Amino acid sequence: xxxxxxxxxxxNVPEGATVAFNCTYSNSASQSFFWYRQDxxxxxKLLMSVYSSGNEDGRFTxxxxxxxxxxxxxxxxxxxxxxxxxxxxxxxxxxxxxTFGRGTSLIVHP
Amino acid sequence: DGGITQSxxxxxxxxxxxxxxxxxxxxxxxxxxxxxQDPGQGLRLIYYSQIVNDFQKGDIAEGYSVSREKKxxxxxxxxxxxxxPTAFYLCASSRSLAGGRNEQFFGPGTRLTxx
Lengths: 110, 115
Fold this sequence. Notes:
The complex is a heterodimer.
Chain A: E1 4-6, E2 11-14, E3 19-25, E4 32-38, E5 44-50, E6 55-57, E7 60-65, E8 70-75, E9 84-91, E10 98-100, E11 104-109
Parallel strand pairs in A: 2-11
Antiparallel strand pairs in A: 1-3, 3-8, 4-5, 4-9, 6-7, 7-8, 9-10, 9-11
Chain B: E1 4-7, E2 10-13, E3 19-25, E4 31-37, E5 43-51, E6 54-57, E7 64-66, E8 76-78, E9 87-94, E10 104-106, E11 110-114
Parallel strand pairs in B: 2-11
Antiparallel strand pairs in B: 1-3, 3-8, 4-5, 4-9, 5-6, 7-8, 9-10, 9-11
């Protein structure tokens, strides 16, 4: 089993839709979790950290389920500019070594 | 503005040549990393460094070398021993935050093509 797994997609949704991605991780001792966004041929950029109690940033909501070992990202009212690849990141091998998922591709169409 | 810079943005290399990719950060971060990304693939860790004058191999270190003589700089050399070096190379840095959180920040990347 891979350390961090994501559905590669693509998720193809109309503007205004709500879309959710899940990411599962194998190391139950993992301590910190993040979502990054990567645009085509660009570097990943931190979208948001994921806290145990769940957290929201505008249209984006992140959740952590430690019992089932997954994190989720919910995007409400999708915009065309949300089209990107969303990377799940888990610190599972020590605090300095994050593990990246392969990413989930989102395409928002008019 | 604080950030991470990488140069060059595009690099072309002939087979058999060594090339060095630059990475500089002014975020005062202790840890720095090099990743490789192939089309449609995730990030794979090449090397990382937690402090000056110390670095560790990642998952795919063969054919690569690094140095960390200054806190701000972490250059990566792609040697002729690397059999398939054409890829997108990303440098990142981080500082350890409270509770073990370790957010990474990335440079804009170098796209290396072997001719």
